[in-house]
Every structure is written in structure tokens, then in C-alpha cells.
Specification:
The chain is built from 13 helices and 18 strands. By secondary structure, the protein is of the alpha+beta class. The protein folds into 4 domains: 117 residues, Beta-Lactamase; 106 residues, PAS domain (Beta-Lactamase), CATH 3.30.450; 90 residues, Orthogonal Bundle (Helix Hairpins); 162 residues, Heat Shock Protein 90 (2-Layer Sandwich). It starts with 6 loop residues before the first helix and ends with a strand.
């Protein structure tokens, strides 16, 4: 056994499950039980020399000395918490308590004390402090006004937003109970019965409810949502109640507006089918008017073209008739003369007949798709417009080769399968538009057709040497009734009809741009493999 003072009196203390120590009248510790010595790993002599105090954590040393010295000076019990270094250099928290000790004569002979480990308790306290700090931070960062009532319905906590929302000073709430608070809050409501009571009920509708929620309206017009819930332990014990309030004035306004708009949309949807039907009928009606106007415009163009095509053969026939009259008057009307006159007349009449056939074929509706050579279709369109193009000295080029109506020059064939006459009608509108743009331009006056095929798409570029399309109207030229021509000289539906035909009937694309020489219209058609 360790040779401590009073071995007989303290032999049992050596094996007590706590640290036990004694001091002399000067506060110098003279005895440490075996549990203490096993903890520090030092001998009794080392501890008596004051080594034990070197094991106190530096941050706790001054506090311990102050507590002990104050108690020693007044000979009263003392208590101190500090960290004591274990023999493996790990600090552990202990609670050190000491009591003055007296002999049989009543003379003070020193202190006797004991130490118990409180590391786990300190850790729990620290964790509780951190948890409370985090909870407080969460409360203050919350978008809700929050107030806590304990199990006795006294206010145990609240955040700043709660005071702000209800216009209550924090000092007023410090010593207030739940019942008083409830009555105070009711004075600020339009309908006090809507407030959830301390037992979790809103008026008489949710009595005895553990969790409740409802909306309340303030006298100033603001709207709060409220939620109240019991705070219980795992065993079901009641720790009190928590109230959450949130300002939902703006959200409620948005919801009401959304509700009205939803109702309007539902009413609109109920009549949408009828309105769509009316709009479709109106659109079809307008399209029929546009088609009729386009036909009339095309007919006017055709009549003017026929006039130009027939003018020369009619002049030739007129000369033949005049020659017959003169030959008869001069006695020169023999068989040979008659045969030549008849031959010349039949040639002119045949030319006029072919012209009529060309125009009749042009106006013949396409009821079925057909596969045709696009170059030949272009030449058929040019044969119709050639008279007017020739008057204005406008040259035509197809893939760089000058077009001659009397020549049988070959062009590379490009074949598509679609509605031929509708393609020709769309193309003729573009040719006429190009003619009007070029006829007033300085020479050379040209309209060029450039055809190319790639990736099963045929591209037809129709460009002219006019002045081009002003940038500010480039996106408007395909609009119905839009024209840059003088009043009475344009209907504004030719290009629109070309777009409708190409995109709706031929399933292609059409668009316009400006080239270096003038304007360029591009048609893209699918080439069926």
C-alpha cells in the first residue's frame, strides 16, 4: 500500500471509484488516492510537490486558483470545473469539490475533496449550446414569425420577425404568458375567432387538435397563414407549443388573380371551338377572295400577253389581205400568188392557235401530280410572257445560256413530281414581278434562271438586274395586298399567291434576297428519288 499520511484512515479511499484528496491548513494537497495516481501516472511524492497542478489546462488554471483561494480564505466549501491532463496527455473535464475539515477540538486541519468526471456532461452542454445557437439563427433567418410556449403556456422564445409582423416590442413579450398574448393578438384581427388557440384549435372548428393551420386577416388588410403544433418528447410528453405566422398577402393576391385568369381561360376554352370554326371560315372566305383576285389579275396579265402575242401575226394577216386586194386590182392574182398568200396566212393562224393552246393549258387546273422537266416548264412560262419581255428588250438566261423561243437548244433536265400548272402559275408571277422591276432599268436588262440540285432538293434562283428590294420591306413582299407599284398598277397579291402555292400546294420553300445585280427569288422543291 502507498505510504500516505493517515494510512489507516484512508486505505479504503485508495480504491474508491472517484478521485479523493486532502490538503493541509495552507491548501497544500497531501493525499491523493490510488484512482487519482493511476489517472495522472505520477507518484504521491510528485503530486505532493505540486506536480498535479501542472496537469490543469492552462485556460482553466487561473479560474481554479481563484475559486480555491477564495474558499480557503473564508474556510468555506468550494467547487471548480477544470480540465485535468491524463497520463496519456488527454485532457478530461472534472468537477472538483472540497469541504473544510476539523479535528475533535474544532480546529481547522485542511480540506478534503473529491473529483468526478464530467467530460460527457460538458460535451452535452456544448452540443446543447451549439444546437440552441443554430436554432436561434434558424429562427431569425426564417421567413415566418415564430413564438414558443412552454408546457405552462408561458412564452419561452420568439424571433424578431414575429415582433415585427405583429408590431410588438420584444420587451413586452418577455414576461407574458400565452393567454395574455392570445388576447393581444386577437385585437389586431378582423375576425378574432380565426386565431388558433393555445390548445391548437381555431375557434370551435378544430378543438383539441394537436397540429392546426388556418389563414387570418389583419385589420390593416394583411393576410397571414398560421400553423400551430405541439412539441412533444419521444415518450409523448408535452414540451409546449410552437406558432408559425407567414405574411401571404402578396401570394394570396397572385392566387386570386390566377383564379380569375383560370376562370377566364376556362370560359375561353368553352367557346374556343366555335371561335376557331368562325376564324377558319373567315380565313377560307378571305383566301377565296384572294384566289379570285389572283385569277382576275392573272387573266388581265394573260389578255395583255395575248394582245402582244397576236399583234404581229394580225399585222402579217392584214398585209396578206391588202396584197390580195392589190394583186386582184392589178390582175396579178394567179394560182401561185394565191397559194403563197394562203400559206403565209395559215402560218400566222397556226401561230395564233398555238398561242391560245399555251394559255388554255396554263389555266387548266392540275388535279394530279405529274413528273415533268422544270426547264421545259420554265420555257412554257417564258413563251407566254415573251411578247411583253421582248417589247422591253429583256434578255432571258437559263443556267447561263440565252433563251431563244425559236431555238431548240437543249438544257440540262431537272425533274420533279408535283402540280405542274400551279408551279408555272407561281413562276409566272415571279417573272412578271421581275419584268416590272427590270423594264425601267438601264441596259443590260436581264432575268436569269439558275437551277441546281443537291440532297434531293431542286433550287431555282430567279434573279434580275433591277434595283433590288429595299431592306426595310424585304420581309413584307410576300404579304397580301403589299405592293410598291403605283396605284392601279399592282394588286399586291401575285407574290403572296406564289408563296401560298409553293409552300401549301407544292410543299416547298420560297424566299427573296438581294444579289449584286438586283433582286433574287429562290424556290426550293423536293426531288422524289
Amino acid at each position: 500500500m502507498i505510504n500516505n499520511e493517515h494510512d489507516d484512515n484512508f486505505s479504503i479511499a485508495d480504491y474508491a471509484p472517484v478521485f479523493i484528496w486532502t490538503s493541509n491548513i495552507y491548501g497544500e494537497r497531501r493525499y491523493f488516492n490510488r484512482v487519482w495516481l493511476d489517472y495522472t501516472g505520477r507518484s504521491i511524492e510528485e503530486e505532493r510537490m505540486g506536480k498535479w497542478m501542472e496537469g490543469i489546462h492552462p485556460d482553466d488554471y487561473a479560474n481554479y486558483c481563484e475559486s480555491f483561494n477564495e474558499a480557503l480564505s473564508s474556510l468555506v466549501p468550494f467547487k471548480a470545473e477544470y480540465r485535468l491532463r491524463r497520463k496519456d496527455n488527454v485532457y478530461r473535464w472534472i468537477l472538483d469539490t472540497g469541504t473544510p475539515r476539523y479535528n475533535a477540538g474544532g480546529t481547522f486541519i485542511g480540506y478534503i475533496g473529491s473529483c468526478v468526471g464530467i467530460t460527457e456532461r460538458k460535451q452535452m452542454e456544448d452540443e446543447l449550446i451549439r444546437s440552441n445557437s443554430m436554432l436561434k439563427s434558424q429562427q431569425e433567418a426564417s421567413i415566418d414569425g415564430i413564438v414558443f410556449l412552454d408546457e405552462n403556456q408561458n412564452i419561452s422564445g420568439f424571433n424578431g420577425l414575429f415582433c415585427q409582423m405583429w408590431d410588438l416590442p420584444a420587451s413586452l413579450l418577455t414576461n407574458m404568458d400565452g393567454s395574455t398574448l392570445l388576447e393581444l393578438l386577437k385585437t389586431k384581427l378582423q375576425n378574432p375567432k380565426g386565431l388558433i388557440t393555445c390548445d391548437g384549435s381555431a375557434g370551435a372548428t378544430e378543438a383539441n387538435a394537436k397540429d392546426s393551420s388556418a389563414a387570418i386577416v389583419m385589420k390593416d388588410g394583411r393576410i397571414f397563414s398560421q400553423h400551430s403544433a405541439c412539441v412533444t418528447s419521444q415518450e409523448g410528453g408535452n414540451y409546449g407549443r410552437i406558432w408559425h405566422f407567414r405574411d401571404i398577402t402578396w401570394r394570396t393576391k397572385i392566387e386570386n388573380e390566377l383564379r380569375l385568369k383560370t376562370k377566364s381561360l376556362e370560359e375561353l376554352a368553352a367557346h374556343l371551338e366555335e371561335r376557331v370554326k368562325q376564324e377558319v371560315e373567315e380565313r377560307l372566305k378571305q383566301e377565296k377572295i384572294l384566289v379570285q383576285q389572283a385569277k382576275m389579275a392573272s387573266m388581265g396579265e394573260m389578255i395583255e400577253a395575248i394582245t402582244h402575242q397576236w399583234r404581229q401575226p394580225l399585222n402579217s394577216l392584214s398585209l396578206v389581205v391588202q396584197d390580195l386586194a392589190e394583186a386582184f386590182a392589178n390582175g396579178e392574182c394567179d394560182k401561185q400568188f394565191i397559194e403563197e398568200a394562203v400559206s403565209d396566212s395559215m402560218q400566222q393562224i397556226d401561230y395564233m392557235s398555238r398561242t391560245i393552246d399555251d394559255f388554255r393549258n396554263y389555266f387548266k387546273p392540275s388535279k394530279a401530280k405529274e413528273t415533268f422537266d422544270v426547264v421545259l416548264a420554265i420555257k412554257e412560262v417564258l413563251s407566254i410572257a415573251w411578247g411583253q419581255l421582248k417589247i422591253h428588250s429583256i434578255s432571258i438566261l437559263i443556267n447561263g445560256t440565252v433563251y431563244d423561243p425559236n431555238s431548240s437548244a437543249d438544257f440540262a433536265g431537272y425533274f420533279v413530281t408535283t402540280y405542274k400548272n400551279e408551279f408555272k402559275q407561281a413562276l409566272l408571277n415571279i417573272v412578271n414581278n421581275a419584268r416590272d422591276a427590270v423594264k425601267a432599268a438601264p441596259k443590260p436588262r436581264e432575268i436569269s434562271f439558275c437551277l441546281s440540285a443537291a440532297d434531293n432538293v431542286l433550287t431555282i434562283n430567279v434573279s434580275d438586274t433591277g434595283s433590288g428590294i429595299p431592306g426595310e420591306i424585304l420581309d413584307k413582299i410576300f404579304s397580301p395586298y403589299f405592293t410598291t407599284k403605283e396605284d392601279g398598277k399592282g394588286t399586291g397579291i401575285g407574290l403572296y399567291m406564289s408563296k401560298m402555292i409553293v409552300e401549301n400546294n407544292l410543299s416547298g420553300k420560297i424566299y427573296a434576297s438581294n444579289s449584286k445585280a438586283g433582286a433574287c427569288f429562290t424556290i426550293e422543291l423536293s426531288i422524289e428519288p
